[in-house]
């Protein structure tokens, strides 16, 4: 049995871990919100808006908890709107631009499939607060995955044009997937403490589900590629800064403003 982590080290790792979850949901929710009024049909417009609201709701719960763990008096709004890009710890995949509808669906499906495995594991966390948030998020993620995987199959196994565009989106976004399971010291500390599941143990189930759904969509799994992006360590692509400039504009222009 490994020795317990010192209290300060464990709390610091726990804070960063919760921020990673929160920031990924927040940034992905912001991306989906960009589709409102622009989706191909009204039903999909509403569907993407509902996904965005769920993700932002998850982010709010997680950011509130992160603020309490941090103990510096920062609430969910301060953490969402008053941090700069290097302080965000979201997955690089979540911040990638929407592209066309198919591109958005592939990005959403990759993250949904990952969150299904992750939230299921976190539901048994030794951190009761995080376990409760994960259990709620898991119910929402099951709906998100039905939406994204349904469209993946419809478009991938649709017309020659839709198939080609979905394969192009998959080929473009696949390079960001190694980060989903690239464990670092934070992941290892919270795993040893029973707070989070092992990423290495989650990967086989994710990979098997991805392969099964790609077969149904008649899409080819791209080859593995080197991964230089580590958004969860604060090293982002150029896209996050532009996203935050829009998302944070109002609270930074009018500090302390209230509706």
| Biggest β-sheet strands, sense, barrel | none
Shape: globular
Under the CATH scheme, which class? Answer: Mainly Alpha
- Give me the count of strands: 0
For this structure, what is the CATH homologous superfamily? Ferritin, core subunit, four-helix bundle
Span between termini: 52 Å
Short description:
With 259 residues, this protein is mostly helical.
Question: Could you walk me through the main structural features you see in this protein, from its secondary elements to its overall organization?
Answer:
The protein has 259 residues and is mainly α. It has a single domain (7-253), classed as Ferritin, core subunit, four-helix bundle (Ferritin, Up-down Bundle). It has helices at residues 7-33, 42-70, 76-81, 101-122, 128-156, 160-173, 185-192, 199-216, 239-247, 249-253. It starts with 6 loop residues before the first helix and ends in a 6-residue tail after the last helix.
Mind sketching the topology for me?
Blueprint: H1 7-33, H2 42-70, H3 76-81, H4 101-122, H5 128-156, H6 160-173, H7 185-192, H8 199-216, H9 239-247, H10 249-253
Helix pairs in contact: 1-2, 1-7, 2-5, 4-5, 4-6, 4-8
